[in-house]
Amino acid sequence: MGSVDGMDGAVSTAPAGQIAWRPQAEHVQRSRLARLIERAGCASPNELRQRAAAEPAWFWELMVQELGLVWSYPPRATLDLAAGKPWATWFPGAGFNYTASAIDRWIEAGRGEAEALVWEGEDGRQQCLTYRELRDAVGRAANALRTLGVHQGDRVGIYLPLTIDCAVATLACGRIGAIFTPIFSGYGPGAVATRLVDSGARLLVTADGFYRRGQPVAMKQIADAALGATPGVERVLVIRRTGQAVPWQDGRDAWWHEVVNAQPAACPPAETEANDLYMIIYTSGTTGRPKGACHVHAGFPLKAATDQALCFDVQPGDRVFWYSDIGWMMAPWLIEGTLLLGGTAFLYDGAPDWPAPDRLWALVERHRLTMLGIAPTAIRGLMRHGVEHVRRHDLRSLRALGSSGEPWTPDAWWWLFREVGQSRCPIINYSGGTEVSGGIVSATTIEPIKPCSFAGPVPGMAADVVDEAGRPVRGEVGELVVRQPWVGMTRGFWGGPPGEDPAREAEARQRYLETYWSRLPDVWVHGDWALVDGDGFWYIHGRSDDTIKVAGKRLGPAEVESAAVVHPAVAEAAAVGVPDALKGEEVAVFCVLRAGYEPSETLRREVADTIAVQLGKALRPGLVAFVSELPKTRNAKVMRRVIRAICAGRTDLGDLSGLENPSAIDAVRTALAV
User: Fold this and answer.
1) Which of 118, 139, 657, 670 is the residue whose CA sits 20 to 30 A from 330?
2) What are phi and psi of 377, to 5 degrees?
3) What is the spatial distance between Cα 670 and Cα 444, in angstroms, rounded to a whole number?
4) Using N-to-C axis directions, what is the helix angle for 557-564 and 601-615, rounded to 10°?
5) Nearest CA-CA partner of 639 in 671, 661, 672
6) Using CA of residue 351, residue 352, residue 358, residue 360, what is the dihedral sign?
7) Residue 354 CA from chain centroid, whole number
């Protein structure tokens, strides 16, 4: 693995562990990564990775040139480490509004009539905006936000299905220097309210509803229930998606089309700085409330564009689709990264197998998509429908496949490679995180690929696999770490507007440091198990912390536990992720009941339903068990890793020296047996 030279070859039918795909000459000739390697004076992808890791400022200066970004005024430096690596500042002092580079510059370059966004809804409706039309739509939406009292630095909640209006709303916030918080469309009122309250949102953009498997979902009603616990939201913009009747509060609620369409299209981008916040996106950790990752104009968008360019080889004219939701980072990644590269971002807001099992493949054929990204969970679900649904469609427009969210199983990887990619498209395995703004490790289109593998660190990511002492390890599983800061690294966790609540800011600062920087000096510990094999291929082996990952969606156990105790019977709860053949993991909840309640099947369903109402149906637990006590440390912290080990059937439960109540082990085992 490594050299660009001599990498043309044929497809392999090798078993897992051997090379399955090698790039052909056409991949190298087209490759942006290959051109960058030559421009940098490097001999191979690995040499570029190594130099970028050693000289991060050099690499990101190179990427600014490669992406053609233009500052409205130049930075004082490329990288400022005066506050230490956890608080690295990129391009300090630079003037930069990402929407100008994502939209206006393509019009100025004569590509105003090129397609920027294309959307298809589950109900079959379609819409397209050229770059010129997108600029006008964003301008009107931005002016509408201003008329409703949104100013630079204000927070705006985006709780929408993934439509063109959704993309426009996010871009409109950036246009005027507001900060948007994307919220998963499948969340229930509790999860929506948590994010709106924590971010301090003044305005919410939502929809009357959306379709899921042909049935309208009453999104506005869910939003209204959340707003009952969110007094800081002053105005609500409602997009008409389904036409269904909605509850309405005069003076607060307004129709998107009425307010936006009345505005002028002209709205120059606000004079924001490179390090001004533009997005707070929530990711759940192992304890406490969800964490608001803070991203800036010259951060997340640049990282997304860099990864798309170097790993997926996205170029102007490409039509990029990543099956996602606005609440998960891959949707902002898709919109911002693709537009910064002058491509076409394709959006879809429905199920991948409705109204027929071939819906996803029909989308690829109908819209001539060149890159399709999808989670392994979705592929495992589509596999059950059979290969005939794939084979009836012309998928020759595809030149690359992407995957993220969780580790692959070999059978699902081979199915995607052979049936969808027709044994000619590389699967660009890609893993990182919301706080990362994209990938830490990835495959590329110019390096050989083993099933389920990564070629190595994404260029610009000084990644390594280490033991508990921080020593590099190869050929064995260790912790995935990053040794140098990168563009797109979260600027800490949201602790409110600067100066408003010093105690809350200090808590957020400490939480960020404890989450990523506390285990090894000046090293970001990501929380994934990883392995580098003898041939230099990388693999991810799942989370090393307590985070639950359901179908690629990260969920903190504390959120599930908080939802469970809403039920009057539940006094205490512990949530863990357990292996699931389809979803990768499913939620298992162990509950201690209040006095006067007895375990029953009816009560199990009620608790599961309560959690689904709070967090959304997609996060309904697959297992609810009742226990007399939970395993805890002496300081009352629940030992979730012990519960996970019991669920996995392991006899070795690890270090139990901190366990205060060993009898809880038998309680969990008994509950599982029941």
Assistant:
1) 139
2) -60, -45
3) 48
4) 120
5) 661
6) positive
7) 23
> Which pLDDT value is given to residue 640?
87
User: What per-residue confidence (pLDDT) applies to 408?
Assistant: 84
**Full set of structural domains in the chain with CATH:** 548-673 (3.30.300.30)
Q: What is the structure's pLDDT at 377?
A: 79
CA dist 422 and 514 (Å) reads 45
Q: What is the pLDDT of residue 376?
A: 87
Tokens of 635: 């300081």
| CA angle at 576 for the pair 575 and 577, rounded to the nearest 5° | 135
Question: What is the distance between the alpha carbons of residues 138 and 153, in angstroms, rounded to a whole number?
Answer: 18
SS3 270: coil
Q: How large is the greatest C-alpha to C-alpha distance in the chain, in angstroms?
A: 73
The answer, yes or no, to whether the previous bond of 182 is cis (omega within 30 of 0) is no
Q: What is the pLDDT of residue 410?
A: 87
CA atoms within 13 A on the CB side of 204: 32
Give 123's contacts (C-beta < 8 A, 6+ positions apart). 211, 214, 350
The encoded tokens of residue 86 equal 């956890």
Cβ burial, residue 350 (10 Å; 0-12/13-18/19+): buried
Per-block mean pLDDT, blocks of 10 residues, the chain (674 long): 30 59 97 98 98 98 96 97 98 98 98 98 98 98 98 98 98 98 93 95 98 95 97 97 97 98 98 98 68 97 98 97 95 98 98 96 98 91 92 98 87 95 98 97 98 97 96 94 98 96 97 96 94 95 77 76 90 89 88 93 96 90 94 72 90 74 92 86
Question: Within its chain, how far is the Cα of 411 from the centroid?
Answer: 24
Residue 431 token pair: 């893993």
Note the pLDDT of residue 45. 98
Residues 179-192 as b/e (b if ≥16 CB within 10 A, e otherwise) read bbbbbbbbbbbbbb
Q: Residue 194, Cα to own-chain centre: how many angstroms?
A: 18
- 170, 246 in Cβ contact below 8 A? no
Kindly report the number of other CB atoms within 10 A of residue 351's CB atom: 17
The reported pLDDT for the residue numbered 542 is 75
CB 572 within 8 A of CB 592: yes
Backbone phi, psi, residue 449, to 5°: -130, 130
The whole-number pLDDT of residue 326 equals 96
For the CA atoms of the chain, what is the radius of gyration? Answer: 24
| 664, two tokens | 């809880």
Whose structure tokens read 């006899």? 651
Q: Token digits for 388?
A: 């005939």
CB-count exposure of residue 149 (10 Å: 0-12, 13-18, 19+): exposed
